[in-house]
Amino acid sequence: MPISGQSMDLFNSFGEGWQKQWKKKFFTRKQSLIETADEEGNQSLKIISDNTATGMWRKIKNPVKPKTTLSWKWKTKKLINNSAEMEKRGDDYVGRIYVVFGNYTFLTRFRAKVICYVWASEGQPETYYSSPYAKNVKIIVLRNKSDQINRWYEESRNVLEDYRRVFGENPPLISAIGVMADTDNSDMMCTSWFDELKIDP
C-alpha cells in the first residue's frame, strides 16, 4: 500500500524482484508469453497472446478517494480483427487493465465488482458494457482500431468517477490489479506492451 500522499509504482520500475508481487493466472491450457523486454529504450511488460489468455495479477489494499487515479501506458504491434467483442465468442482484447474491488475471490469465481479498461477493435472510446462472462465485470473502452499501432499511449483514469458511472454507487477498496492481452476466443494473435502502471492516492 502506498505511503500516504505518494504514488504506488505497481511494476516497481521492473527492478530486481518486481515479479514477486505478481502472480500469473491462466484462463487457457496454452499459456501466453509474458516477459520483461526492452522497448524503445526502457523496460516494459510484453505479452504475446496466440489463441491464449494469461494475465498478471497483484494484490493490493488501496482505498478509493475522490482523486484516486490509475495511470499507465500501453502499445500494441497489431490489432485483431474482432467484431464480436460484446459476445463470448469475441471477448478478446489486445490490452486489458483490471481493477478489482472488495473480494479478491474474483480470480476464481468472479464474485467481486471489477472494472476492465480495454484496447478494443470496434468498441467506441468511453462506452462501457458488462462482460459476457460476468455481469459484475464492467468493460470500459479506451482505445480501438482508429488508434495507431506501434505507438505508446498514456492513460489516466479517476477510479471513483469510473466506478460510480458503471455501478452507480461508491466503491470499496481496490484489492487487486490485473494486466492481460487475450485472443483465445477469436483464435488470433497479438503482441502488446505495458509500462508505468501506477496508483496515485
How would you sum up this structure, described in words?
This protein has two helices and 13 strands, in the order E-E-E-E-E-E-E-H-E-E-E-E-H-E-E. With 201 residues, it is mainly beta. It has a single domain (8-13, 23-200), classed as Jelly Rolls (Sandwich), CATH 2.60.120. A hairpin with a 6-residue loop joins strand 9 and strand 10 (137-143). The longest helix is centred in the last third of the chain and has 9 residues, at 159-167. The protein is globular and about 40 Å long. It starts with 7 loop residues before the first strand and ends with a strand. The model has no long low-confidence stretch (mean pLDDT 92).
Can you list the strand order of the major beta sheet? 2-5-12-7-8-10-9
How many domains make up the 3D coordinates?
A: 1
CATH class: Mainly Beta
Structural class: mainly beta
CATH architecture: Sandwich
Label this structure with key terms:
six-stranded antiparallel beta sheet; Jelly Rolls; globular
Brief sketch in words of this structure:
6% of the residues lie in helices and 46% in strands. The protein is mainly beta and 201 residues long.
